[in-house]
Amino acid sequence: MADCRLYLCTPPALDPAVFADQLAQALDAGDVACIQLRLKDVDDDTVRRAVDVLRPISQSRGVAFILNDRPDLAAETGCDGVHVGQSDWPYAKARKAVGADAIVGVTCHDSRHLAMEAAEAGADYVAFGAFYPTTTKPSHYRPEPDLLQWWSEMMEVPCVAIGGITPENCAPLVKAGADFICVVTAVWNHPEGPGAGVKAFNAAIEAASGAT
Ligand SMILES: Cc1ncc(COP(=O)(O)OP(=O)(O)O)c(N)n1
Ligand SMILES: Cc1ncsc1CCOP(=O)(O)O
Ligand SMILES: [Mg+2]
């Protein structure tokens, strides 16, 4: 298995009953390390219902199920962890809510400083992005791949690359040392379906890992 693995984020709005089948297709197509449920602007019960449907599909396949933004709901609903951004719960409060064994990831944009702070506080991964233009979450932060190289040479804590990543443009990020490539659009909107998207990423990661 390549050192770099695929990390999926859900689309920001979904019908769990419909998305369940797409998720199973994606996870059955190849290697996926984890899936983040990222629903924006929905009420708590909508999140709970989505977790109830999607978490077992993920966990039964050995794929970690991470909730975006809400450490309290992550703990309540049996998720494997939570992802928090700089405007969400601070790391320490998130960790307290989910416990020592859960995964806590932190958005660090393009900032070495934020990443060092998160890693020193105990984050399980730091996320950098958006590396490429994206309409999923427009971002004025635009790190260069050398940030990943600097990070992976300096630090043990894994780093995630996110933002506009496709099978065609992921190679520089993989070669620079990204531990995870996090993707929304290029998998769920793949013209041949999410399974084909996962396969295309697995192949691109493998090719970039082997290339010098
Ligand atoms: C893996 C990963 N990286 C970054 C983000 C973005 O988090 P945040 O800045 O809190 O923005 P929202 O996703 O909450 O809109 C993420 N979710 N996952
Ligand atoms: C959540 C998030 N944070 C930074 S970019 C981004 C969206 C990534 O989605 P896509 O893979 O569709 O560009
Ligand atoms: Mg957030």
Automatic annotation (TrEMBL):
Keywords: Magnesium, Metal-binding, Thiamine biosynthesis, Transferase. It is an enzyme of class 2 (transferase). The lineage of its organism: Bacteria, Pseudomonadati, Pseudomonadota, Alphaproteobacteria, Rhodospirillales. It catalyses: 2-[(2R,5Z)-2-carboxy-4-methylthiazol-5(2H)-ylidene]ethyl phosphate + 4-amino-2-methyl-5-(diphosphooxymethyl)pyrimidine + 2 H(+) = thiamine phosphate + CO2 + diphosphate; 4-methyl-5-(2-phosphooxyethyl)-thiazole + 4-amino-2-methyl-5-(diphosphooxymethyl)pyrimidine + H(+) = thiamine phosphate + diphosphate; 2-(2-carboxy-4-methylthiazol-5-yl)ethyl phosphate + 4-amino-2-methyl-5-(diphosphooxymethyl)pyrimidine + 2 H(+) = thiamine phosphate + CO2 + diphosphate. It comes from Skermanella cutis. Belongs to the thiamine-phosphate synthase family. 2-[(2R,5Z)-2-carboxy-4-methylthiazol-5(2H)-ylidene]ethyl phosphate binds at residues 134-136, 164, 184-185. The keyword Transferase applies. 4-amino-2-methyl-5-(diphosphooxymethyl)pyrimidine binds at residues 36-40, 68, 107, 137. Binds 1 Mg(2+) ion per subunit. This is Thiamine-phosphate synthase. Its cofactor is Mg(2+). Mg(2+) binds at residues 69, 88.
